[in-house]
Amino acid sequence: MQTAGIIIVRGIVQGVGFRPFVFSKAIEFGINGTVTNFGSEVEIRASGARFSDFLREVSHGPPMSRIDTVEVRPLTGNIRTGFFIEPSREGFLSGMIPPDIATCEACIHDIDQEGSRYEGYWATSCVNCGPRYSIIRKLPYDRERTSMVAFPMCPACEEEYADPHSRRHHAQTIACRECGPGLRLLDPDGNEVRTTNPVMESASLLDQGHILAIRGIGGFHLVCTERSSGELKRRLGRTEQPLAIMVRPDILDQIVRVTQDDKEMLNGPERPIAVMAKRDPSSHLEISNLHTLGCMLPYTGLHHLLFHYLKNPLLIMTSANMPGYPMVTDIDQAMAKMNRDVDYFLTHDRLIINRCDDSVVRDEHIIRLSRGIAPKRTKIDLGKRTILGVGPELNSNATIYKDGFTVTSPHVGNVRNPQTFSYLQETIENLGRLLGAEYDVIAHDAHPQFLSTRFAHRLAKETGAELVAVQHHRAHIAATTIKPCIGIAIDGVGYGDDGTVWGGEIFAGQVPDYERIGHLEVVPMPGGDLATRFPERMLYGILPEDGVLDLLATRGWTDIELGVLTKQLGRKVNVSYTSSTGRVLDAVSALLGLCRERTYDGEPAMKLESAACLGTPTPWDLEFITTGGAEVLSTRALCREAFRQLNRISVDDEKRGIYDIAASFQYNLARGIATIATNAAGERGLRDIALSGGVAINSAIRNTIKDEIVKSGCNYVVNREYPLGDGCISFGQCVSAAMVKRPS
Ligand SMILES: [Zn+2]
Ligand SMILES: [Zn+2]
Asked: What is the whole-number distance in angstroms between the Cα of residue 167 and the centre of ligand 1?
């Protein structure tokens, strides 16, 4: 029987309390030896009669760890008596550190406990909880390579750090009021507000109706009570956009319908924002004028303390950056940007090395992959080459594949502006350094003008890596399944093979060879991007009829404006063409008067969905056209039917009529898309039908497609581990690029 060996453990084994865990097992089984962080791995030198029991226990790891492999090598030489945690050494980078972890119950107890060393201390943490990704610079994971390096431990923390019986034995983030990061409350001019308890003072200011910027784990939030939410929206100039809220756990059930899955995520170590249906759709309209509310529960010691002092049970808590821009992380930057919008700043002095937005989930799907979930690590065999996927342009992130695993970064944003673009580069640099990645292949979007595409070209030139362009919607399907399938990608916009704007696509094949076998009708977008901002333009592009012009005239369009619009379309000047699902939903939202100007990403379609969930759908006739070998669903016919019904609505019950049209439109559009897919599956003998794309976030559309697929006897395939929207693209780019056959 083996009584000694060198055990190498790989995976997410640092930042999860692995060394103290091994230490406690060694004591339990009477093992002599050492444990050390070695590169991104953990190396254990062990000797003792109960070595095999020890090995078995160690192979399970502590709760937050994810073990890929455990390797045992022969041990030579002598081992001194006792068990020791030895200093880390640089070495091979095969693993990853975990995402930031919500403050655990035991630490919250310490914060609440009268007389405890941690009583009222905002940054209390232990081996099982606290920031990780957001504070790390380099592996191996030790305090000196994190932003905790600025806070030398006090004697009491040192003692606890060295105590094998403590939950903070070798906890790299250990800190207390004496030695750890502190809080300061500042006015907009940067003057410190005199107070002995900045959190209690902040709670009182919030209760009084003030708007605060609060520096959290991954960046700044804007925070206020519900009463001030209207004021906050006015100051930000974002009057329509729904705001996320943080609620006291005991009132969550009263305001939204919480599913079991939501409950688990909301209370788990991830603690994302969960988008849930309001109990009463007409409640909390100042926060969200949709039928849903995005809610999260307190996830740091600071949040717990705030709610301890607050009279209000819920707080608006929205990222302080402009939508699509990077989180603001630094106090000077925050003051420069926000001193007009914010009454006070509550800040701490721990550096945020990797910024991180809040993650968003809805109906068991990830909408935004970020804090608590990312860096997201997935076991998948994509071969020996190291691959970088730089992502698309909107809702972007990056993915690196190395040695059997992909690692996807947190949400980066819209890589259209220079700030977000440099944040993308910074993210790729940091992630690449943590993984020790040197790229053989760089995958990018097919759009030649994207900043991310140009960056990929530049990086490939510098490194000699091979470049692979991956069409946007094929990346969606590649992110969903690697098996042969019919793939449905329903989306906003993406660059198509023919240079037009795609977004309602049906493919057949296997990654990377997907043939486009169906799509939504190609319709003009008069004014190009203007048609995205003003969806009534899109409506006229789809239905260029006098009736539509009359409708627009009643809504205040002048004769001159209408003249320009008709001429633009007639002469095809500044008109692009699209099969986008999002743009069709926008047009109907405009037709029904639900949204006439898009002020945030997805607004018209989200308002359509909110109206539709109050209506009852009825089946309409579907029209299909065959062009160029592809089956095309006529969205013109669907819009014409919606328009016809709108003109027949009874005046007494106008609202109900609109809700019903909205519901029917979504239902029939989804049914039409599913019909093309299920027919194609039958013809080609394929069983799996994959669904992806931002429009699939719409529950009614997704569920109709799912029902039709199941009814046809096929398998409905979605990837719940990655966002349905563009947050899956960088992962799909890696998968697709790996499968491209190389000339031998
Ligand atoms: Zn803890
Ligand atoms: Zn201390």
From this structure: 8
Q: What is the pTM of this model?
A: 0.94
Which residues fall within 8 angstroms of residue 340, CB to CB, at 6 or more apart?
A: 188, 235
Mean pLDDT over residues 25-29, rounded?
A: 96
Ligand with minimal distance to 176 CA:
2
**DSSP codes of every residue in 130-199:** B--GGGB-SSS--GGGBGGGGSPPPHHHHHHHH-TTSTTTT-TT---TTTS--EEEE-TTSPBPP-S-HH
Buried b (16+ CB within 10 A) or exposed e, 292-315: bbbbbbbbbbbbbbbbebbebbbb
118 alpha carbon – ligand 2 mean position (Å): 9
Helix axes 535-542, 559-571, angle to 10 degrees: 50
**What is the C-alpha to C-alpha distance for residues 612 and 159, in angstroms, rounded to an integer?**
60
Taking the CA of 127 as reference, the closest ligand is 1
Residue 395 appears among annotated catalytic residues: no
405-408 sheet: strands from edge to edge:
376-379, 405-408, 399-402, 387-389, 441-445, 466-470
**What is the CA(151)–ligand 2 centre distance, in A?**
9
* Whether the predicted pLDDT of 61 surpasses 70: yes
pLDDT value at 444 more than 90: yes
Q: 34-46 pLDDT, tens per residue? A: 999 999 999 999 9
Residue 71 has pLDDT above 90, yes or no: yes
**347 CA to centre of ligand 2 in angstroms:** 19
Distance (angstroms) between ligand 1 centre and the Cα of 108 equals 7
pLDDT of amino acid 232: 95
Q: What is the distance between the alpha carbons of residues 570 and 415, in angstroms, rounded to a whole number?
A: 34
For residue range 255-289, list pLDDT tens digits in order: 999 999 999 999 999 999 999 999 999 999 999 99
Residue 630 phi/psi, 5-degree rounding, is: -110, 145
Cβ neighbourhood burial of 289 (10 Å; 0-12, 13-18, 19+) = middle
Q: Could you confirm whether 19 is annotated as catalytic?
A: yes
731 Cα to the center of ligand 2, angstroms:
41
CA angle 648, 652, 653 (to 5 degrees): 75
Residues with CB under 5 Å of ion ligand 1 are: 104, 107, 126, 128-129
**Whether pLDDT at 254 is above 80:** yes
Q: How confident is the model at residue 744 (pLDDT cuts 50, 70, 90)?
A: low
Ligand located closest to 118 CA: 2
Ligand with an atom nearest the CA of residue 154:
2
* Least distant ligand from the CA of 180: 2
The two tokens of residue 151 are 């806070």
pLDDT at residue 743, rounded to an integer: 66
Q: Which of 10, 19, 50, 474 is catalytic?
A: 19
Centre of ligand 1 from the C-alpha of residue 123, in Å: 10
Which of the residues 10, 37, 45, 168 is marked catalytic? 37
Strand 501-510 and strand 485-495: pairing? antiparallel
Distance of CA 124 from the midpoint of ligand 1 (Å): 7
